[in-house]
Amino acid sequence: MSLDESTKNIPSSDEFKDAFQSIFSNMPEKYLLMLKVHYRMPDRTITPSQLAEAVGYPNHRAASMQYGRLAQLIGQTINFPPPKKWIDILVKPYIHHGDDYGWIMHDQVAQALEYLNLT
Fold first, then answer.
1. DSSP character for 99?
2. Three-state DSSP class for residue 79
3. The CA-based dihedral angle spanning residues 55, 87, 39, 107, taken in that order and rounded to the nearest 10 degrees
4. Residue 107 CB: number of other CB atoms within 10 A?
5. Rounded to whole angstroms, how far apart are CA atoms 83 and 90?
6. Number of other residues whose CB lies within 10 A of the CB of residue 10
7. For the range 1-6, what are the long-range contacts, defined as Cβ-Cβ under 8 Å and sequence gap of 24 or more?
8. Is a pLDDT exceeding 60 seen at residue 32?
9. What is the pLDDT of residue 5?
10. What is the pLDDT of residue 90?
11. What is the pLDDT of residue 112?
């Protein structure tokens, strides 16, 4: 998969708003914290290692797994067709340094967070 393929089919900001409103009262606090931390990063860009450190996960794998679970929860809440990787509905991947990678939050996610005053 090329890095650009992940942005083709993602929910709209309205769909994200609906999902957030449906799940926020019952989801782990760290899920909202992950979104807030990611949103507040310059250019809404973060690596899994940075996210793990900021939120308190033991390593980048744990942060990546939990962010993916959040994405799946969002997608299933709005009956969004499953992508190859659920996390792709929240972020666009990019190459950070060499083999390291990071994520850029989709504008639709940011807009929904802003609308709901969750930033």
1. T
2. coil
3. 180
4. 13
5. 11
6. 22
7. 1/84, 3/92, 3/93, 3/94, 3/95, 4/92, 6/83, 6/85, 6/88, 6/91, 6/92, 6/93
8. yes
9. 45
10. 96
11. 97
Alpha helices by DSSP H, listed for the chain, are 13-23, 29-40, 48-55, 60-77, 107-115
Match 């792709």 to its residue by tokens.
88
In degrees and rounded to multiples of 5, residue 4 shows phi and psi of -80, -20
Cα–Cα distance between 43 and 81 in angstroms, integer? 28
Give the confidence band of 99 by pLDDT, cuts at 50, 70, 90. Answer: low
Cα 66 to Cα 33, 39, 58, 112, 119: the distances in Å are: 12, 16, 12, 20, 19
Nearest partner of 110 among 52, 25, 45, judged by Cα: 45
